[in-house]
């Protein structure tokens, strides 16, 4: 007679009648719980849960029943882990983490509530695996507070966009979540650390001819050339005469017109124009020569 054809009470009666040499706490030893079929595992789990609640925690019998429940229900962990097979984490990592969730579910489960154990356990196992993803998927370590805030911000932004058909501001997100604008800005900045891509990785539309992301990220900054020119000009300007330096300062520093410079120096606008042209030409020649 198999467990699939008997009720839990019948199983308990037959189990308690087993010889003491092959039993623990009134239950026969199960040589390989992983080999038990799904229907039999569910029936045995019902009996074991009732027995577990009657045992004193910390005893040898309690530990045996608890461990047997874990082994009988490991297929639930593999089932949940299979939902995340597209993740970069290995199945072994997810099963190890999911087993922690299974143990938590076993410790919290109350068979008196009339809920099937798989219905109770699967959300707990799934939550434990998702928590593992959250803690390990960040490319840069950030505090747990910011990790959780990122999820809250994502949900709040999605809800706000759905309601108002536009992206929310930081102030609107802060009001929705009951936090400060500074905390929202901090959470948004931290979100950038969730995932990164190597600069050596190919571009998304790379077909063999386009460069890696590092090549696309490179660009010419015009400010660099200007800075180099200013550094190179500094000693050349210092070598000019006092009047030429003063005229350059008035024209390019204070941005006066040629007429205003002429009035200040007591010379004509035409004379100022010739002096500026001559000085600039001299500096250009010296700069190119260097």
What does this structure look like?
With 290 residues, the protein is mostly helical. The chain folds into three domains: 3-136, RNA polymerase sigma factor, region 2, helix turn helix motif (Rna Polymerase Sigma Factor, Chain: A), CATH 1.10.1740.10; 144-217, Arc Repressor Mutant, subunit A; 223-289, PhyR, sigma-like (SL) domain (Butyryl-CoA Dehydrogenase, subunit A, domain 3). Helix content is 65%, strand content 1%. The protein is built from 14 helices and two strands. Strands 1-2 form a two-stranded antiparallel ribbon. α4 (74-82) crosses α5 (91-108), α5 (91-108) packs across α6 (117-136) and α7 (144-164) packs across α9 (181-191). The longest helix is centred in the middle third of the chain and has 21 residues, at 144-164. The radius of gyration is 38 Å and the shape is rod-shaped. It starts with 7 loop residues before the first helix and ends with a helix. The model is unreliable at 1-21 (pLDDT under 50). Residues 93-106 form the RNA polymerase sigma-70 domain. One of its GO terms (molecular function) is DNA binding. InterPro entries: RNA_pol_sigma-70_dom, RNA_pol_sigma-B/F/G, RNA_pol_sigma70, RNA_pol_sigma70_r2, RNA_pol_sigma70_r3, RNA_pol_sigma70_r4, RNA_pol_sigma_r2, RNA_pol_sigma_r3/r4-like. This is B/F/G family RNA polymerase sigma-70 factor.
